[in-house]
Structures are given as structure tokens and as C-alpha cells.
């Protein structure tokens, strides 16, 4: 605080507002259980594309190959950055897909 105090009238108004807000059970419950939303990391995002991994990897590889052809012909820095980003995405998706396949295979072997 920088030293400014509320007047008596402002304090009374604030207390009335707080009292009214406390009477709202739904709002009170939401405020008590409120959590900050986390920014999803790569693992959370990849979990949603689980069934579409092979198709997604193929599409990203096709897109990155097309971007590479454009980058070679134009040598534009933006296109080169896009090629790098799509290749990185393709590598991450491929590694994740291989890890998932290995995990499924390992679980099947353990069951038998």
C-alpha cells in the first residue's frame, strides 16, 4: 500500500459488497475451487491426437517437404523458419508415435 486509506463511506460500501458476494453460494464455491489454468505442454497436446498420429505425421511430413521445395527456390527467411518448425514438429510427432507403439507392444508382452 502506498499510504492511501479508504474513507469510512468507502469501507462501508466495500463491506456491503463483500457481504452480498458471500451470500451467493455458487460464486463462493467457484471462487474456493478456482484453479489457475495451466498452459498445456507437449505431452497434453499429443494425448489428444493419439488416434490420428500416423495421419498427422504423414501430413506434417508432406507439408514440410513442400515448404522445403519452396524454401530452396525462394530462399526467404520466413519460409526457411517454417521448414525448420515443421521438421521439428514432424520429429517430435514421430518420436512420440514410436514411443507409443513401443509402450503398447511392451504392455502386450507383459500380459502374455
UniProtKB/TrEMBL annotation:
- Protein name, please? DUF3040 domain-containing protein
| Record field: transmembrane | 55-73, 79-98
The UniProt keyword set, sorted, is: Membrane, Transmembrane, Transmembrane helix
In terms of superkingdom, the source organism counts as Bacteria
